[in-house]
Amino acid sequence: MNKIFKIFIIVSSCILLSFKFTFANEKKIKIGLLVPITGENKELGKLIIKSTRLAIKDINNNEIEIYPKDTGSDPNQTLKSAIQLRDLGVKIVIGPVFYRSLLYLKDVQDITFLSLTNKTEKIPSNVISSGVNATSQLNTIRKFLEFSELKKTILLTPNQDFEIEIKKGIKESKIKISNQYIYDQEPTKLTAQIEKITNYKVRKQNLADEIKRVENSDLIDKEKQLKKLEKKYTIGKVKFDSVIISDFNESLKSVITSLIYTDVSPKNKSIITFNQWFDKSLLNEKSLQPIFYPSINKENLSDFKIKFKKNFNQDPNHLTLLTYDLVGLIYYLSINNDLTDLDKLFRKKNSFKGKIGIFDVHNNKINHRLNFYKIEDNKIKKIF
Predict the structure, then answer these.
(1) Considering only CA atoms, which of 121, 134, 67 is closest in space to residue 95?
(2) Residue pLDDT, tens place only, 264-276
(3) In this structure, are 166 and 177 located in the same domain?
(4) Are residues 138 and 45 in the same domain?
(5) Crossing angle of helices 187-197 and 249-261, rounded to 10°
(6) Residues 120, 227 share a domain
(7) How many CA atoms lie within 13 A of 11 on its CB side?
(8) DSSP alpha helices (H): ranges in the chain?
(9) What is the average pLDDT value for the chain, to the nearest integer?
């Protein structure tokens, strides 16, 4: 017979969720949940709460209690809710979702927070970033570069606030980068920068000079050679065999388009990006393919989406899958350990296999072992 699943839902707003109270003397696993229950991101918060309910149902253990509290996507509200969780005896919390909500959590030292952000720089000592960070992604990209024997890789990073995260990821992953360039996302400036990186003007001039040379020559096959040259856009090699672009959405497409404009084709230079969460819009951009990127396990994500849809008649997102796995991670760590000594638990080397993939826990850090995918011929193909 199935055990009774229990979720203790503690909220300060008018949002009500179904739950059961069963009192027993057995030791409980209290997990706090800091999510936006009010405000513009409240729908995301609701999805995350449902994900924890699904995790508890699948774990099938009635010792787990979940205590959701509202962050309102605001640092002050987050601090207030965190203090309330501490007063309830909660020692470990999943959340907050957003990096800005971490601002004051250093004042609640009695709790370990597993934030859903993928940023790892300048976070409080009691916060562990559990999102898919730059180090995890670059670890996987390094594996692909070694597997493909690519030795001249450049890294293109937009002039945004995650430049520091990228530099940290390079150092921790020990990936070999020939050159790193910071680019402006404004289209005109971007094109000029890509032209400089690819030595486009020199290569373009090389072609013009070669055409002129052949035209002025007495070669027997002059016309044949001229026809071949007319099909070219440039002459000359670039100083790299692969490009990593740490960008997303339309900005990513603009960078790849600029590379193609400068006669650097994805068909002869490996174009690698960061985790795109299986962005379907990239499937329709055949001229930009192939594109390579690390990501979570696609098959597991698809299975989770089906399960979530069946239980709640809603589509989940990747944060719900991450939350689902974090509940499992906490339960896994609690089986043979005392959750009151969390600092020691997260310093100890552990690995946990979840739906999202494998978590490596060590020295108060969580890294993910990711899979690697290629978009080609309008299909997503798994490399490893």
Answers:
(1) 67
(2) 999 999 999 999 9
(3) yes
(4) no
(5) 50
(6) no
(7) 19
(8) 42-59, 75-87, 134-148, 163-173, 187-197, 200-215, 222-230, 249-261, 298-312, 318-335, 342-347
(9) 90
What is the number of domains present in the chain? 2
Does one domain contain both 178 and 249? yes
Instruction: Give the side-chain half-sphere CA count within 13 A for 235.
Output: 11
Cis peptide before 96 (omega within 30 of 0): yes
- Cα separation of 8 and 33, whole Å? 11
pLDDT of residue 10: 32
Residue 1 has pLDDT above 50, yes or no: no
CB atoms closer than 10 angstroms to residue 272: 27
Q: What is the CATH number of the domain that holds 377?
A: 3.40.50.2300
Q: Give the strand order in the sheet containing 350-353.
A: 350-353, 358-362, 365-369
Q: Report the distance separating Cα 104 and Cα 122, nearest Å.
A: 12
* Per-residue pLDDT at 28: 84
Domain, as residue range, for 176: 134-295+372-382
Model confidence, pTM: 0.88
Pairing of strands 92-94, 112-115: parallel
- The pLDDT score that the predictor gives to residue 9 is 32
14 exposure class (CB count in 10 Å sphere: 0-12, 13-18, 19+): exposed
**Two tokens at 198?**
């690819």
Pair 139, 288 in one domain? yes
d(CA 26, CA 362): 30
Q: Are 332 and 95 in contact (CB under 8 A)?
A: no
Amino acid, res. 377: D
Tell me, what's the pLDDT at 7? Answer: 35
Query: pLDDT tens across 200-256, in order?
Result: 999 999 999 999 999 999 999 999 999 999 999 999 999 999 999 999 999 999 999
- The H helix count followed by the E strand count for the chain is 11, 15
pLDDT tens digits, one per residue of 326-378:
999 999 888 877 777 776 778 788 888 988 889 998 887 899 999 999 999 99
Residue 244, judged by CB atoms within 10 A of its CB (0-12, 13-18, 19+), counts as buried
Pair (285, 161) in one structural domain: yes
